[in-house]
Write a structure and sequence with these properties.
With 78 residues, the protein is an alpha+beta fold. It is built from one helix and five strands, in the order E-E-E-E-E-H. Helices cover 27% and strands 28% of the residues. Strand 3 (26-29) and strand 4 (36-39) form a beta hairpin. The model has no long low-confidence stretch (mean pLDDT 82).
């Protein structure tokens, strides 16, 4: 979803007990101008949001961690 409205945030680092991972993310301003949403292209269905870019990135790390744990629990490859 890289578009003209995306901010340049190259990636976030997530340290999980079994492996450190780095994921590219797209941080996009909300249309109403209040906050940001985050898309993780490498993890379909993994989204997050926050009132500030920093909060959105922090929430994205949590979302990525939960998403990866769920995939591993299902036996999916990450």
């Amino acid at each position: 979803m890289v578009g003209k409205n995306c901010l340049l945030v190259p990636s976030v680092f997530v340290s999980l007990p079994y492996m450190p991972l780095r994921f590219a993310i797209d941080v996009v301003p909300e249309e109403d101008g209040v906050g940001y949403y985050v898309v993780v292209p490498a993890l379909p269905g993994c989204f997050s949001q926050g009132k500030t870019v920093e909060e959105a990135m922090k929430n994205a790390k949590k979302a990525i961690t939960l998403h990866v744990r769920a995939l591993k629990k299902q036996g999916d490859f990450v």
